[in-house]
From TrEMBL:
Residues 193-288 form the PDZ domain. This is Zinc metalloprotease. GO terms for molecular function: metallopeptidase activity. InterPro entries: PDZ, PDZ_sf, Pept_M50_Zn, Peptidase_M50. It is an enzyme of class 3 (hydrolase). The lineage of its organism: Bacteria, Pseudomonadati, Bacteroidota, Chitinophagia, Chitinophagales.
Length: 451
């Protein structure tokens, strides 16, 4: 009950809305990638559904030979193509003699195109979104060598030798201009050393082999981040936030928590988290006056204040793209995204990280969306998930598109088609495996939520 009361339901609704819209776009276009080639090759498509519809549908309408519908279980969608062994497990249809309009009657190359169509559409969608984002918004970032105040570190980073204020020089001897690539390089590429500047001197920090596993275990991807000054209170999360109730106002400058200086925003955040559930004394500058405000920090470890504009404190780099320039830039960003996610999968399969600590369900995915509706963040996550879906779906596992494609390729190479009975059992085994993983991931998320 305490966990439920601690949930910000407005934030939950915003995140849920973004999640549903994002995955509706991804799923509908993915299924369209199967639907269109199936129609081109004269296959009968019996159903086209967003979300699954066991027992009943929220909406359905038959147009021609196809029933279009909306299911009530928001875990994907499907197209039911006649004569295909899929998640519907329609065994009765498969007992009948093959018909010319059935999937199983088509040449292997046509069946292969139908099966990989969804993956290709998701790849194209991810690339197009990234390209359009770069064309519309461009890119703006602070180069790693322009971090005025160095980096802020958490306890894991400090445990291997990093300190607040360190300035990053190189990773394994290579300077990386975009800071956001450094944590992922350390986690995914098995980096050995990081060179930093501290108090005017160069120091080398050695990265232990088990460090990536620890970062994933404790969800500490931001173990190092750009250190930023706590400028002032730019705004409050809401009129009912702990800060608002205590009397904190816009343009206040919080300079200490229980006497501990909060010159940098990360220092403030650490002190708030450290004292969650406790009453603290905030030292606040309001104009020329110094005030002390008593405040009880909620159990969620945040009081609801946003930092002021930090842009004047840093030298930023801006890149604007023409439409022609955005296309190769979008391809490059898509490629980097796929490589990064593939490396994450390799870490899991190699046993270097515990799958229990990196596995997540729709709950984990939904939490990734912004607490306020931010179109730039929304489209960035939609592109990312579209590419991830493509990569996951092409894995050669029965029940996924990659499993169907694998059996079709085997047929094309060997000239022998797997029997319907074999395909039935393979599909069943794949579905049991996938549903088991989904149920397990959901259970882990529920456990984490209440823990």
């Amino acid at each position: 009950m305490t966990t439920l009361l601690a949930i910000d339901w407005t934030e939950f609704a915003v995140k849920a809305g973004q999640f549903i819209l994002s995955f509706s776009i991804i799923v509908v276009l993915h299924e369209l990638g199967h639907f269109l080639p199936a129609k081109w090759f004269k296959c009968r498509v019996e159903k086209f559904y967003l979300f699954f519809n066991p027992w009943f549908s929220l909406f359905k309408k038959k147009i021609g030979e196809t029933e279009y519908g909306l299911g009530w279980v928001p875990f994907g969608g499907y197209v039911k193509i006649a004569g295909m062994i899929d998640e519907s497990m329609d065994k009765e249809q498969m007992k009948q003699p093959p018909q010319s309009w059935e999937f199983r009657s088509k040449p292997a190359w046509q069946r292969l195109i139908i099966m990989v169509g969804g993956v290709l559409v998701n790849l194209m969608l991810g690339f197009l979104i990234y390209a359009c984002m770069l064309w519309h918004w461009g890119e703006e970032y602070v180069p790693t060598n322009k971090f005025t105040y160095g980096i802020a570190t958490d306890s894991l980073a400090q445990s291997i030798g990093f300190k607040d204020g360190d300035k990053l020089l190189s990773v394994d001897g290579e300077y990386i201009d975009r800071f956001n690539k450094i944590p992922m390089k350390i986690i995914l590429s098995g980096s050995k050393t990081v060179e930093v500047e501290r108090d005017g001197q160069k120091r080398t920090i050695n990265i232990p082999e088990d460090f990536a596993g620890k970062l994933i275990k404790y969800k500490a991807v931001n173990f190092i981040e750009m250190r930023v000054p706590f400028v002032k209170v730019d705004s409050l999360a809401s009129d009912t936030s702990a800060a608002a109730k205590a009397g904190i106002k816009k343009n206040d400058k919080i300079i200490a928590v229980n006497g501990v200086s909060t010159e940098f925003f990360q220092d403030f955040r650490k002190q708030v988290w450290k004292n969650k559930g406790k009453q603290v004394d905030l030292t606040v500058l309001r104009g020329k006056d110094t005030n002390h405000i008593a405040l009880t920090i909620p159990e969620v470890g945040a009081i609801g204040v946003y930092n002021g504009d930090i842009k004047p404190y840093f030298e930023t780099k801006e890149i604007n793209y023409s439409f022609a320039q955005a296309i190769p830039a979008g391809v490059k960003k898509s490629k980097e995204t796929l490589q990064s996610y593939w490396l994450q999968l390799k870490l899991i399969f190699s046993g270097k990280v515990n799958a229990n600590e990196s596995l997540g369900s729709v709950v984990s995915i939904g939490k990734m969306f912004a607490p306020v509706w931010d179109w730039q963040s929304f489209w960035g996550l939609t592109a990312f998930f579209s590419l991830v879906l493509a990569l996951m779906n092409i894995l050669p596992i029965p029940g996924l598109d990659g499993g169907h494609a694998l059996f079709t390729l085997y047929e094309m190479i060997s000239g022998r088609k797997p029997s319907d009975k074999f395909m039935e059992y393979a599909q069943m085994a794949g579905m049991v495996l996938l549903l088991g993983i989904m149920a397990y991931a959901l259970g882990l998320d529920i456990f984490r939520l209440f823990k």
